[in-house]
Amino acid sequence: MVSEVNIRASAADDTIILTTTSSSSKTFLARLCEQAERYDEMVTYMKEVANIGGELTVDERNLLSVAYKNVVGTRRASWRIISSIEQKEESKGSEQHVTIIRDYRLKIEKELERVCGDVLDVLDEALIPKAETGESKVFYHKMKGDYHRYLAEFASGGQRKEAATAAHEAYKNATDVAQTELTPTHPIRLGLALNFSVFYYEILNSPDRACHLAKQAFDDAIAELDSLSEESYRDSTLIMQLLRDNLTLWTSSDGNEAEGGAKEDKPEEESAPAPEDKGEEPKPAAPES
C-alpha cells in the first residue's frame, strides 16, 4: 500500500502543514523531527500513531519514548538550574530576585505538569490497554512510573504524596510482570530496576530499599550473564554498570554521612532508548546527570 503525505501551505503565515494517511508516514515524520531536534512535533506525530489502534512496534514505542523524554528532559534540566539559582539568591537575601526566579520556576513546573499529564493520558488510554506482550507491559508501566516520578520531583504536600503513590504502583506493576516474563538480564527489566531504585532513593528517601533493589537486580543478572543473548549484551551490561555506579554513590554517601553530596551528584537512571531500525532491544542513551 502506498502511503500518502499531503503538504498544505497556509496563505496567512506560510506555515507548512503535513497530513499523513498512515502510521508509517507519521513514524517517518517523527524520525525527521528527531533528526531536526523538534521534539514537540515528534510527540505530536507519535501520539497520533499511538491512537491509530493496535499495539505499537518496538521501534514505534521507542520513538514515542524518545520524543517525550526529550520534551520533558529539557524542562527537568531547566527546573534544576532555576531551583539552584533560587536557593543561592535566597541565601543572599535577595528578595526581589527570589520573587522573579520563583515565578519563573512555577512557569516551568506548569509546563512539566502539562507534558507529564499528556504522556500519562496516552499510556492509560491508548498504550497500556493494548499491550499484549510482557515486554511491552513492563515498558509502559515503567514509563508510567517514570513520569509520575518526574511530577513528584517538584511537587509538595499532598500532590507529591499522590504522585509518589502513583509512581510506586506503576513500578510495582511493571516489576510483577518483569519477574515472571522477562529474564534478569533483559535490558527493560534492568532499566526498570534502575529507575525504581532511583525512585526509592530520591523520592521516598529510602537508601536502604534503593540499594537492596539495585543490588538484587545486579546480582540476579550476574548469575545469568552466561545466558545473555549477543544482541542485548551491550545494553544489559551498560545498565548493570549504572546500577553498580549508583550503589557505589549511595553506599559512599551513607558511609560518609554526606547526604548533601549525594543530592548534588544526581544518581544515574536509564534514559530513553534510541530507536533501532532492526527492531532490536533499545539502546540506552547516556545517563542523566
From TrEMBL:
Name the domain of life this protein comes from: Eukaryota
Start and end of every 14-3-3 domain?
Answer: 23-264
Write down the InterPro entries for this protein, in alphabetical order: 14-3-3, 14-3-3_CS, 14-3-3_dom_sf, 14-3-3_domain
Annotated family: Belongs to the 14-3-3 family.
**Site: Interaction with phosphoserine on interacting protein. Where?**
76, 149
What protein does this entry describe?
Answer: Protein BMH2
- The record's region (Disordered) falls at 250-289
